[in-house]
Amino acid sequence: MGLFGSARQRTPQGLPFGRELRHEDHRGHRKLVLVRHGQTDFNVKHLLPGQLPGIPLNAEGLQEAQATGQAIATLPLTAIIASPLERTMQTAECVNAGRGLTIQQDRDLLDTNYGPFSGQCYDDLDQQNAQWRRFTTDATYAPQGVESFAAVQRRAVRAAERWRVAPDVGEWVALVTHADVVKLIIGHYLGIPIGNTPLINMDNAAVSLLTFHPEIQRAPTLLCFNWTSPALWLHAAQRQ
Question: pTM here?
Fold first, then answer.
């Protein structure tokens, strides 16, 4: 089983290999602009924020969110939906700068509920906690009080499906959320096994774009993934 399933898996009907896709090819399709929040001190210290309250963007994270908001200012967003946590609401406000949209909240976009692991350092847990190690290597398993990644994916996709068909929100809908949620949504639609989602990188304040055909049974197209302004992965590589 490879990253995209067995070798016999077929490309979606009507999407032949070797064709480059352009944004104008998707005019009139519902777009979901998936935005991860900017950096927090928890990110820097390798602490698990989960659904804990009171974790705002740090100074760098605010700059990241503002840079992303400015970089996508020309996108004709028609709705902004956010996880209710501070870091996502702050990022959503940066995305909304100059737009005057009403930021709606959706609890299905919340970060993974890490339960008793919340606030702990995942580097320490990797070394010291067998339940944590099993949890991070088995998407269907979760210790008591912890949300499995399979459960996170179910509610994340539920949110994506809700907003891909919601009436009266326009063509361009931004979902401001968390790394796990973005990766699990995209993994679902691209058929990536949930156990392989740790192979996907997701930078702070990164933007990904899914476009959905009006025929609801058709798979969406991934037009952009983990895009940041400036390219954080490139700057990180240059510093090494």
Answer: 0.89
pLDDT tens for 152-190 read 999 999 999 999 999 999 999 999 999 999 999 999 999
Domains of the chain: 26-239 (3.40.50.1240)
**Cβ proximity of 83 and 55 under 8 Å:** no
pLDDT digits (tens, 9 = 90+) for 47-106: 999 999 999 999 999 999 999 999 999 999 999 999 999 999 999 999 999 999 999 999
